[in-house]
Records
---
Amino acid sequence: MAESAKGRHAVTNNLNLEALGVEVDQTTQKVFGGHSDDHERTSVANIYAIGDILHNRPELTPVAIQAGQLLADRLFGGSQVQMDYDMIPTTVFTPLEYGVVGISEEKAVSRHGEENIEVYHAFYTPLEFAVPRRDASHCYIKAICFGDRILGLHLIGPNAGEVIQGFAVALRCGATWSGLSGSVGIHPTTAEEVVKLHITKRSGADPTVTGC
């Protein structure tokens, strides 16, 4: 069986947005935001776009909900708080979950330069894999840092969504590498492997965890 995931295509043709002056991507039919320093404001000052219809933004329901709440607060509550599209946690719920919060290594390098980015990583064996001797070769963690600031955290392994949700709060609160690496782990958990990270990609050392 072959499956293909083509993503989402916005159905905006019948809205005649271009007649109003709203800029739309001709390929995806999604609306361009980011005008006048407002992430959701379109090219027309009093028209906003949120959620999946907004060009180059994550197609995630919780993102749309929070962006909408923040937009309402700005429009009617006097707030100035914008949606943070960098520190969004999400998970791919495959049999071996992939969870992430923050940006990718590639985006970090493009923003800050490769020489300014430090990547800590590890291949690890979760306890529930070790006892039955399951293949853990794909269980992987990566933390992307700019100086002491953590820009992104990526985790492949069991319960990745649960683990990343917790670390997402920490990163939103300004978690640092020194704070993360100085934390005590809860043994034996997958999350423990995150605070145990210490090998950098730059070093070229083997990142495989060999013990407790």
---
Amino acid sequence: RTLAMLGDAGYEAYAPDWPGHGDSSKPSSSSFTYNQQAYLDALAAFVDKCGITKPFALVVQGYVLGQYGLAYALAHEEQISRLFILNTPLAVNSKLRPELAAYKSPIPFMRPGNKQFDGTMYNMMGSPYAMMEADAMTYGKAYREDPAASAAVSASMEQLDFSGLLKQVDDGFRSWRKPSLLLFGANDPFVDVKNPQAWLDSKRTSMRLVTATAKLGHMPQEDYPEAIQDTLESFLSGETDSWAPGQVVAKMTKKGVVNV
């Protein structure tokens, strides 16, 4: 729905599934290493294939792939005009959510390995709302139908150095100058709003944080896309550049999120 609303507003928007996820191909780890560089190279190839030549606004969200999106922005800063971050753990002391932390267990037999990943529950657990059945089934479809999808999760987690990735992103964005907006749902059971607050302490004033008093969870774009649309469009148009640096508390109205 977010893509549809952006299209209706006149924007050209893409929401690609990363390799190994969703409807994208799920190559074996022998042909795709599922590490940070492989994901960044894949995103660069996607941007090139789409014929995107002008700087674009990048929207990221999530624990691991969201971090890789941020790492892509640092590696290709000349391509990025604006950065919009939704409920992504940013503080260097952030921990993986339990379903992902299990893959990094120090006890080998406690790791899920290639066991079927429950994509339905993974996405449902972060929301304060009951998810539509059709949406829930879509999230879990790839893992139910193709064992390679669960193998891709396992391979990605095996390659992940989460603490090192957090530090890389934290250090890199200390000198970031592009207009950036962090919009965090306050009802996220995994990422507390104090997380981005702590992260922003060492960042430039080109970054602003919006926290919504409405019930928005780990994936605000899925929980209530209509609620963030006005803020997203205001950011894309440059209207939010005049906001005072720091944190803005917002509430949800029938017209979306507004400042309070």
---
Amino acid sequence: MGLTRCGKIVKYIMFALNFLMFLGGIGLLAYGSYIKNNNGLPILGILTIILDYVHLSFPWLLIMAAIICILVSFLGCCGAVKKFRGMLTMHFLLLLAMFIGVIVSGVLGYQYKQTIESAIVSQMEASLNSSYGVDDYVTRTWDTLQSTLRCCGVEGDENSTNSWSFYKTSTDWFKSQRGDPRYVPNSCCRYPGDLYNLTNCVGLRDRDRRQAPAGGPPVLHVPSMRNDQLFTKGCWTTLLNIVNNKIWIGMVMITLSTSLMLIGMILSVCLCKRIEEQIYEDEEERFQNLAM
């Protein structure tokens, strides 16, 4: 005697969901391997300046996550097709561990949010201070980040000592210049291709040092001190604003992933129950046949 109609529906749904998860794991594995073999990718550069050494482990984290997804989906697919309760039990336990991991990570991330942000800002400051203008890879990454996000420096607005003015107050790049110094790099400028606007942006035209970036901070509410060619907001502040504005996307993804985990666990339990009932019914039918 096979599964009932309800049991077959559960089996097919479970197989379909785990097959999609298997394909997703393959894609994640391919992406992780691609990043691992291409060290010059922008995402690794951004990780380098945000959290030191994380860029080295990031591809391996993707590969490990992909392997876990493939393993879980394999157990789910084979357990559903072969009706093997041992595989379904392992599938349930792995999904439960993943579900708990997501919840715990979310709680810890929220609890230590300020600590994490402080660590990121400190690493960005260290990267800009000692590596900009020295390490070509870090320099290109900062230039790409600043020109793309239209930001300059680490954090804060035009009156902060950690945004555009961080270059002239704290970086080896500024201190190592000879002659008329540039107070910010070209990537902090709105129109780096226009020579007149560029020289105004980096402070080469401001002999009296009254206008940003030569003058200030703070940049007072005086038109002569403002520089409309210069990006004045720090990159971490800009990036954080983007994340906060798009946080609903992350919440939707987390809700969807945890919901799929719950559905997978429920399907595993239901299918195990149906298989157990089938085994009991088969044994009962066999006993009745022997009795006859």
